[in-house]
Every structure is written in structure tokens, then in C-alpha cells.
Amino acid sequence: MSIYKDLLTQQGTSSGTSAAMGGKNLSSEAQHLHHMLDQHLQSNSWVMFTATHGGAGSTRVVLELAQYLSEALAHGDQRVLLVDGNSQSPTLHHLLDGTNAMGLSELLITGRVEQILQRDVLPQVDFISNGTGHLMFPEAMFRTQDSTVMQLFSQYRYVLVDAPPLFSHPDALVLARLFSSVVLVTEYRKTKKDVLEEAKRRVEGAGGHVIGGVINKLQHSIPAWLYNRI
Amino acid sequence: MGASFSLRYFLRIVFDYLGFIVVSLLIINGAVIAYNILAPRQYVASTRVYVESAVSEVTLVQKDRPFATPPSVEQILSTESEIIISHPVVQSALGRLRGREATAEEASQVIAKLQVIPLKKSNVLRIDFQSGNPDEAAKFLNFLVEAYREFRGSIAPTGQPVSKVQARLQSLRFQIDSLYAAQEALLTSSNMADFDNTMRFLSQSIFDAETRQGQLDEQLAEVRRQASYYTQELAAYKDDPSHSVIVPEGWVTANRTVEELEAAEQALLSARQTYAENSEPVAASIRRLDRLRKQFAGILASHVADLRLKEQSLTSQRSQYGQRVQQQRSELLGIPEVKSRTQSIESALENLNRLYTDLVRQQMSDDVGTGAQSDVAISLLSPATPPQDAAYPRRLQNILLGLLGSLVFTITLVYILESLDTTVKTSLDFERLGIPFLSSFSKSE
User: Fold this and answer.
1) Which residue among B7, B426, B443 sits closest to A230, beta carbon to beta carbon?
2) What is the pTM (predicted TM-score) of this model?
């Protein structure tokens, strides 16, 4: 089990108890995100997470949401598919103790799901890494209802894609067009408002739809004892 | 909810910039505290003197300055203050303190630390002196008061030399008197004490004279017409004694003569019917008729002469009225000029009088300042004693001001920094851009 997986497990077990960070814990933050996503998602539950710049932490947000959903869906038969779309610096397979030998790029070319899909990286969560090949996105494979990818995605309650930063890799805008529902991840006191506005404009220009934004690395400067009293 | 959010927003900014705020407050207040500790201590010694003026209305009159007003308490205290911080007094006091003669430069440095304050609604002057040595401050002040009193006593009484101001006053007095004389002469020569009444009188008089001129013209025309008529009638009568001359009813002498002529002509006619032409009665009637005819011609000639005389008289009268109208018109036209000259003289007089009064007051002030020995009495109310506590630096005041100033400075700076910060910080930033806010994730440790 990877270090990050250990960390998530610890946080999960301690959620709601002593892992308070500024009045919230990781589980409650992901829970809130899940709740808001359900409100804003429309046709399907395929969501792409992208940041405005590198280091904002979209991978972390996707992972924590997946962790929460893993716990939330533990007693049902609904599943979550986690896709690493970050061809610039794929890291999810490290964090989830998976492999990157074959991934999304190979899936789009070969259509061999069983060889590429990494099952149960977390309870109820399957994973497709980025792969080693260059990402080629034949849109027809996505858009055709009976394509292998579409059939695979349609088996999952949620498909969460970790995309590269919007302004540093063109794949992000291509993914935004294919997945249509986009969550913009910003970094507290780092991401500028005009950059965020430009990101929204670009996503919408590419045919995507920004369903919401997330602030990551939020620092609760007010002490919890004071924050809870006001 | 709004208030809670505002408070949270405010506190968030405070805690976000807490480090900066603390450092800023520490630096500024540290500097203030360091100044309080390191700044040299200054002690302020104080003394009070009572100053009273003996100058009054009576003394001014006695000094032949009826125009001057006695100096006010403020003027006296202001003058005495200037004397106290004057170089001679300060140099003298410094000399006593140091046991040697002080230079003007040393005196200037000391004067900068001296403060003379007239206490309100009183005749008291408070003298403060600031020094690093409390004993020295008190000693110097006592020497200063001593030197001041001696200096005040050494000044010569007023009225000895004729000052420049007095010479100027005499010159002004002469100018004022000259102008008064010129004004009086002008008014007398033009006989115009009251310009408006004079103008009204002259206008009426000119109107009356012109009316009278018209009447005289009418009379003259009538007299000339009669004179001409009777001259012609006389000539015609002399040529032909039978010529009938019309005589007005009121002309008694002429009417009686005409009646006698008619009677004489009737008598001649009767005599010729009765007597021969060469007879005595006829000759007598002819002689009487000739005599009466000559008499009537004489009456007519006399009347013409009278008319000529009357014409001359009327012509003379008219001429006199004409001259009078001309003269009065000339006077009327000259009034504005006289008025203007009088006004300019009055204006000059007013200015000179004001200048004169100011100079008299200045002279009074100078006299008080330069010092009538008997005009000002000085009493020392409280001698200076060494102060126990330092007056400067004012620690509590400096600390409070530093605290307040640093808070204002820091808050302003934080406000500016926060205003310039355009990064994403709250859900509001998303809402303003039309992006739904989904969640936030805390920074992992």
C-alpha cells in the first residue's frame, strides 16, 4: 500500500473525530464536494478535474473525492472509475499503488479493457492510469454510444478524470470538450481571479461546461476555538 | 449572517496578516520605546512675574497726547515678553550663571529654549526654560528675572529726545492744519457752505431773472412802439396843424390842450364871421390858436422824450438782469469743481488724521516699550526651583501616540495589500465570476 493510500486510510478512520483542520476534516470536505456535484451534474456523472496552474492540487482533490465515494458506496453495488488523464505528469498510479504500464492512451488505441483496467484500487473504485503512449483522442471512440470507452464508462456511477493543468497542456481542453462537466481547482491565495475567469472562458470556448470551482490548500488562519464562536 | 460573515472576513484578514501586523507593531512601538529610553531628558523650570502698567488716560493727557489710548494688558505683556527674551537680558543672565560674559551666539541658543507665556486674563507672565540640568535651569531663570528687572530699571524715561516719530507727527500736524485752512478759504471764497442749497438757490434766481427779462422785453417793445408812433405824429402835426392826433383818455394834459385847441379854432371861426380879417379880435384868435398849437406840439415832443428815457431805463435794467443771469450761470457751473476740490481736501484730511492717530499710538507703544521707568511695575511672584521630573521625552504620550500611529499605519497597509491582492480567497470570488462554488479543501499538513 502506498504512502498516500495509508494517509487516506488514516484520515478516513479518523474522520469526524480528531482530524479537524480549521473546523473541517478531509472527509467532510469531500462529502460537501460530492453533495454539490450531485446538484450540478446533468446528463451523466463524468467529471473532469483540472487546475488553472500546476501545483494547485487537482490530483489531491480527485483522490479525496474518490476516497470518500469509496466509503460512501461501500455497501452498495455502485462503483467509481478513476482516470488519470494527466499525460504531463501522471502520478495517480504512484499514489494508488497501481501501474502505469498500460493506461488511457492504450485503451483508446486497443480497446482492451481487461488488460488496462485496474480493479479495486480502493473499495468500489477502479482505476485507469495514463499509460505510456502518447494520448490520441479519437473523438469518435468517446462519442459513439457503443464504443468500448463509452460502454466502460457507462458501467460506473461516477467517472472522475484527473486532467493536466489548463494553461500548461492542450490535453486539458480536449478532455474538457469530451467530458463536458469540468471542475476548476484553484489554489488558495495563489490563483488569480482573472486567470480563473480566463480558464472558464477557455473551457467554454472548447465546448466544455464549468459546473463549479474548488479552493484547494485553504489555510484556516482563524483559530478553531475562535472560529467556532463567531 | 451578514454580520457574522463580515466579522469572519475581518478576522480572516487579521489572522492572514497576523505576522505582518505583529512585526509592524513591534518595530514601530519598539522604535518609540527606544526613543523614550535613549532620548536625553529635558527639565523645564518655571517662574512667574507680575507686570502692571501705570499708563492711563490721565497720564496720556498730562503727556500732551490726547489722541493716544492707553496700552492694553495684552500689549504690555507682549512688550515685556519681548524684553525678557531680548539679547541684552539673556546675555546678562547667562553671564551671571557662568561667571563670564556670554556671547550673542550663546544667548541665541538659550533664547531658543526660553518660552514666555502671558497667562490669560491676568497681568502675569510665565517664563519657562528647558535644560538637561534641572538645577541649572532654575538658577538661570532666577538670574534672568534679576537681569530683566535691572534692565527695565536702567531704561531712560520717555520724552527726552524728540524721536523720528515725533518729527513725523509735527510734519503731519502742519499738513493737516494747512489743509484745513485751504478748505476754509475755498468755502469762504465760493460762499458755498452747502452745495446743494446753493445750487437750488442759484437755479431759482436764474429762473426769476430770466422771467423778469421777459417782462422787461415786453415793456421795452411797447415803449418803443409808442415812441415811434408819437414821433411820427409829431412830425405830421408840425407839417399840418390840422392833422388829427389821437390822444388816450388818460393823458389829461394833452386832452385839455386838445379841448382848448378846439375851442380856439371855434373862436377864430366866430371872429372871422363877425369881424374883418385884419381886425384885432381875429388877429388875437389867430395868435391864441398858434400858441396852443405850439403848446400841443411841445406836449407831444415832451412825451416822446419821456418815452425815449423810459426806453433807455428799461434797456439798462434788462442788461443788468442779463449780466446777473450770466454770473449766476457761471457760479452754478463752478459748483461741481469746488465740490470736488473740497472732497479731495476732506479725503486727504481724513487720511492724515488717521496717520496722525496711528503715529500717536505707535509713539505711546514705543514709549511703553522703551520704557518709562514709572510706567511699568514688575514683581516676582514665584522664584524658579529645580524641577523634580523630566518634561521630555513625554513617555506615556509618546507610547500612546506610537501605538495609535502604528495601528493606523498597519491597518492602512493591510487594507492596501488586501485590496491589491487579486487571488482567489473565498466562495464570493467564484460567485462574482459566475462559477458555482463547490467546496474547499484545507491545506494538508
Assistant:
1) B7
2) 0.52
A residues 83-122 lying closer than 8 A (beta carbon) to B: none
Phi (first) and psi of residue A24, to 5 degrees: -135, 165
Q: How many residues does chain B have?
A: 445
For B381, the 3-state DSSP assignment is: strand
Q: At what angle do helices B280-370 and B252-274 cross, to 10 degrees?
A: 170
**Nearest Cα to B205, choosing from B315, B304, B326?**
B326
The letter for the amino acid at B118 is P
Question: Are the beta carbons of A212 and B430 separated by less than 8 Å?
Answer: yes
Nearest chain B alpha carbon to A185: B440
- The complex's ipTM works out to 0.85
In B349-412, at which residue ranges do the beta strands (DSSP E only) sit?
Answer: 376-382
Rounded to 5°, the CA angle B269-B295-B305 comes to 145
Contact residues, A window 18-37, toward B, CB-based 8 Å cutoff: 21-22, 24, 26, 29-30, 32-33, 36-37
Report helix, strand and coil shares of chain B as percent, to nearest 5.
70, 10, 20
Query: Which residue in B424, B436, B440 is closest to A211 by CB distance?
Result: B436
Give the separation between CA A24 and CA A106, rounded to whole angstroms: 40
Q: Which residue of A has its CA nearest to B7?
A: A230
Q: Cβ contacts (< 8 Å) between A224 and chain B: which residues?
A: none
The number of C-alpha atoms within 13 Å of B131 and in the hemisphere containing its C-beta is: 20
In this complex, is the C-beta atom of A51 within 8 Å of any C-beta atom belonging to chain B? no
Q: Which amino acid is at A76?
A: G
- Mutation target vs A (from B442, B443, B444; most A CBs, 10 A cutoff): B442
Task: Among A26, A194, A200, select the one facing B435 at the smallest CB separation.
Answer: A200
Walk along chain B (445 residues) and give the pLDDT tens digit of each residue: 344 457 888 888 888 899 999 999 999 999 999 999 999 999 999 999 998 876 655 555 555 555 566 678 888 889 899 999 999 999 999 999 988 888 889 999 999 999 999 998 888 999 999 999 999 999 999 999 999 988 887 654 444 444 566 667 777 777 778 888 877 777 776 666 677 788 888 889 889 988 999 999 999 999 999 999 999 999 999 888 888 888 888 888 889 998 999 999 999 999 989 988 888 989 999 999 999 999 999 999 999 999 999 999 999 999 998 998 898 888 888 888 888 888 888 888 888 878 877 777 766 665 544 444 446 788 888 889 999 988 889 999 999 999 999 999 999 999 999 889 999 988 989 999 999 999 999 887 5
Do the bridges between strand A158-162 and strand A181-187 make them parallel or antiparallel, or are there none, so unpaired? unpaired
- CA B269 distance to own-chain centroid: 101
From B28's Cα to the closest Cα of chain A, the distance in A is 24
